[in-house]
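Supplementary Methods, section 5.1.

A reviewer requested that the exact input to the structure prediction be made available. We therefore reproduce it here, unchanged from the version used in the analyses.
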Amino acid sequence: MCSLGVSAALPVSCSTGLQKLVDATAAINELSLELAAKETELETATRKADQVLVEVTASAQAAEAVKTQVQKVKDKAQKLVDDIAVRSTALLAVNC
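The structure derived from this sequence is encoded token-by-token as follows.
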């Protein structure tokens, strides 16, 4: 009787196992489509990020160039201030 019960359950078990395989295949196919869509989105986002990086790098280089120019003007202005201070001190010394 035991072997008869096992034999009768075998087709049901095989059918259930096959259905699980079919379901898993469908799920894998669906996930593959979602993955392909996400890969496309990722490629688009990567291209946009690369563009932003190029723009930020260019802006940083331009800012550095402006900073260098401002520093040169500041240094010249400081030199003028120092020269004026020396001349003022010299004039005050002569007048006193």
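The radius of gyration is 40 Å. These observations are discussed further in the main text.
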